[in-house]
Amino acid sequence: MTVRGKIFTVMAVLVVLVSVAYIGTTQGFLGSLFARYYSEGGGGEVPVEQLEGLRGFILEQMELKAITVTLYVAGITAVVCYWLSGMLVRPLKRLIAVMDRVARRELDAEVPVLRRDEYGQVGEAFNKMTLNLREAENSRKRLVEDVAHELRTPLSIVLSKLELIQQSPSDVKPESLLPLHDEVLRLIRLVDELQLLSSAEAGELILHKEMTDLAVLLTDLSELVLPEAEAYGVHLVVPASGDTVWIHIDARRIKQVFLNLVANALKHTPHGGAITLTISRTEDSGFVSVAVKDTGPGIPPEAIPHLFDRFYQVDKTERRASGGAGLGLAIARQILIAHGGYIEAANITGGGAEFTVFLPVSAVSLVREHR
């Protein structure tokens, strides 16, 4: 039975019950009134048959009136029910029609929100859901396209090299296999990064946390990147070893975050520039922060909202030059989210870019030692 049919049925039952109750109550009242009249001797001069006939006539007229009123009320109730059920059912029918379109993968379908009551709230919530579905579908399509693009280039190189080797009449020299080895490593790195990113986005990234001195971690990091920084002619500044920040983190994952940030800064910092890492903590912020600043050209303002998207790179030619796939910042963001933190990017007044990593202060113990 439809909603409208259920409303009509319920209202009809209510009208019948009220009418029956009215007739029964009236009859009982009249019967008790006549009985009281007899018991008090009021009917001594009037024959009993005449009184009974009078009572029967009155009850008969009341029943006719009750039926007439019932039919009148039923008619009004039917009109009210029809209007009320239409008001309740029409928005549902519109919603069902849009839901059917979405089920057919027409994700651009939206419910027209014409009212501000609960139905309007349901429509707004449904439209937000379809918006999220569209974004997820677009993200999936972009991911497939980007992965296909990233895999196609190294696979084409490997295929062409193998064809050249097969067609070569001479023996294969070991150095001729080095490009193949590099492209295979690139493929392996891409697959590993995608797997890590997918695990992190699904909330399945396994963290091995332990108490770690954040200042020492950054010092160890600087020793890893110092040769490359010197080759670029870039000065690297890290926090002083006297400032100790103990924090409960997965040291390997967090070092991966800062390695990526410093590597990006090195790519964009000119010869003679500097990269500075600083640790700070605001007592009421709830987070300890690590800022990575460079003296490069900065980030185009239109690129900042997309820096942490998959496969996004500000300079499209950089991918071919560096061999990167544009997953580093997306991975860094997901690692920090898994730790309960986040990351922000901004330009520095006067030139340069700044990436700031925030980690929750609930897992931090800050101690300053002056040596």
UniProtKB/TrEMBL annotation:
Cell compartments where the protein resides: Cell membrane
Enzyme Commission (EC) number: 2.7.13.3
Membrane topology field: Multi-pass membrane protein
Keyword list, A-Z: ATP-binding, Cell membrane, Kinase, Membrane, Nucleotide-binding, Phosphoprotein, Transferase, Transmembrane, Transmembrane helix, Two-component regulatory system
Enzyme class: transferase
Gene Ontology molecular function terms on file: kinase activity
A Pfam family matched in the record: HisKA
The protein's name: histidine kinase
Span of domain HAMP: 86-138
Taxonomic path: Bacteria, Bacillati, Bacillota, Bacilli, Bacillales
Naturally occurring in which organism (per UniProt): Paenibacillus mendelii
UniProt entry tagged with the keyword Cell membrane: yes
Occurrences of domain Histidine kinase (ranges): 146-363
Catalytic activity annotation: ATP + protein L-histidine = ADP + protein N-phospho-L-histidine
Superkingdom in the source lineage: Bacteria
Annotated Gene3D superfamilies: 1.10.287.130, 6.10.340.10, Histidine kinase-like ATPase, C-terminal domain (3.30.565.10)
Keyword Nuclease set for record: no
InterPro entries in UniProt: HAMP_dom, HATPase_C_sf, HATPase_dom, His_kinase_dom, HisK_dim/P_dom, HisK_dim/P_sf, Sig_transdc_His_kin-like_C, TCS_sensor_his_kinase
Stretches that traverse the bilayer: 7-24, 69-89
